[in-house]
Amino acid sequence: MSKKNPHILIVDDIPDFHQEIRYAFRKGYSFEGAIGVRQLRDKLRTKEHFDLILLDLVLEQGSEEKIGLELIHEIKESRPGVPIIVVTGEHDYKTAADSISRGAQHFLYKGDYKFEEWEALFRKVIGEANLKDENKKLKKKVKELEIRHEFIQHPDYPIIGSSPQMERLRRSLKIAADKGDLTVLITGETGVGKSIAAHSLHYNSILRSEHPFEEIFISNIAETMLEAELFGSKKGSYTDSKEDRIGRLQLADKGIVFLDEIGDLDPNSQGKLLQFLQNKTIRPLGARKDVDLDVQVVAATNKVMKEEVDEGRFRRDLYERLKVFPLEIPPLRERRADIGDLLLHFLKLNTIQQLQEVFTPEVINILLKGYDWKGNVRELQHAVTSMKLKRELEGVSLINLECLPNEIRAFGQQYTKLNVASPPNGQLDGHTETEGEALPDMSDWPVKMKQEFDELQQIERALIRMNGVKQDAADTLGYNSSDDIRYRVQKMIKTHPGWMAHFPRIQRSYKKYMKS
Q1: Where are the alpha helices (DSSP H) in 10-114?
Q2: Are residues 218 and 302 in the same domain?
Q3: H or E element: which one contains 122?
Q4: Staple 460 to which of 161, 208, 355, 503, CB 3.0 to 4.6 Å?
């Protein structure tokens, strides 16, 4: 049943009956009332949700016509999933049978009113309706998944990347999602996306996606409170325990609990978690009885768990239970093919070519091929946010070296020197890098012109260093292909033909595009 109080619509022509029911069931239920057919129809036309309808059969005082029987079909048409309990003052078994045959779930007599029996029936009927509704949703989702047979991207937590490692991760998450009782251990460095993977697993689960996803950061909870937080507690079971507390594992019942930073779990809680994994029961602090739960456990850590076990900080038997289905997410530096996809995702772009409309070639080369991204996806996401703000602050059209976060910029300056440095004595392939005219004074140039001239300088240096091999120069600068360089050079020749005197290597490499 829903955690909210069930909402009941009372349909009866006697106001006193409304008052009696509202008072008797004031704890645990909320009510709406309709006196007569007209008010009932008004209520049915609203978008208000009802968990149960109590329907009197005689809805006009002084009349003996059981109009309620005729209304059952109308109610079922309007609110097909809402159960109906017919309530009347007469002991008429034929009428009771007629009501149920028309679609009512049960029949009650006002003269036999007993709170406990009525309350039990309310919960039974509402619970059965909710279960039926859940089964419908489950069947619908199963059908959808059976049609597609593939991993479905979470709209808020997508797994980004086209590398073989990410393809394997998506397949593995789909397997874990399909097997709703499988315990999963996700490992990987900080920032690789372990939480995103856990959310994706829950979203793809046929059995559990409609139920809670409880995310628990172990290291954020004080060790003295961890047991009560996970397993719950009874009033008075510890200092300042002034009321019963439901544990986070119990809140995840029928769903998934995600235990992030599981390597930080204290020894006492490790033992209780092991017992839960073995028996699927918990015992809250101070309780005398166990509580049965149906929860899939997904744990994650950035620690090397074998080392934690070998050094005695983590129970070996618990580790063995957790790693039934281990998933490792490799660091970003080991799957560089995903960096471009992630940049597109965070910049809300569609194609790699569009990166050249955001970054200078030098920066693209640093981001895609040079920088190690020790903070992984999280660092990349924060870097994109920082670079966009710095571009706005600097008033430049393309994100250049100066727009990079400090650590990446310091790396980039060294990386650029190493990768586009001149050969010894400035000599390569019989030509010197200083063959062109002296560089112009650019102090008064607009920012865009400075960027374009700087781009030509980078292309010139790359062509010299790569001995005129255009594809190698394109790779060095972070372009997709040599066609991208050709396109940029053609555009510059057309826009700034006078600049070409400063770039003899470009002239030789693209002489057929030079104007006489």
Answers
A1: 15-24, 37-45, 67-78, 93-101
A2: yes
A3: helix 115-148
A4: 503
Domain boundary among 368, 403, 438: 403
301 and 260, same structural domain?
A: yes
pLDDT in tens, 136-171: 776 666 656 554 557 899 999 999 998 989 999 999
Q: Which residue type sits at 264? A: D
Token output for 389: 């703000």
Residues 94 and 121 in one domain: yes
Average pLDDT over residues 18-23: 89
- Sign of the four-CA dihedral 380, 381, 385, 391: positive
Among 67, 51, 37, 68, which residue's Cα sits nearest to residue 9?
Answer: 51
Where are the alpha helices (H) located in 435-496, listed in sequence order? Answer: 447-465, 470-477, 482-495
The amino acid sitting at 308 is E
Residues 76 and 184 occupy one common structural domain: no
- The separation between the first and the last C-alpha atoms of the chain, rounded to the nearest angstrom, is 83
Which of 306, 330, 354 is at the close of a domain? Answer: 330
Amino acid in the structure at residue 8: I
Q: Please provide the DSSP assignment of 139-194 as one string.
A: HHHHHHHHHH-S----SSS-----SHHHHHHHHHHHHHHHSTT--EEEE--TTS-H
Q: Above 90 in pLDDT, residue 504?
A: no
| Euclidean distance between CA atoms 514 and 516, whole angstroms | 6
DSSP structure string for 210-242: TS-EEEEEGGGS-HHHHHHHHH-B-TTSSTT--
The reply to whether 212 and 314 lie within a common domain is yes
Residue 187 and residue 59 share a domain: no
Q: Which domain holds residue 109?
A: 7-132
Answer whether 215's CB lies under 8 Å from 260's CB: yes
pTM for the predicted model, two decimal places: 0.57
Look up the CATH number of the domain holding residue 265. 3.40.50.300
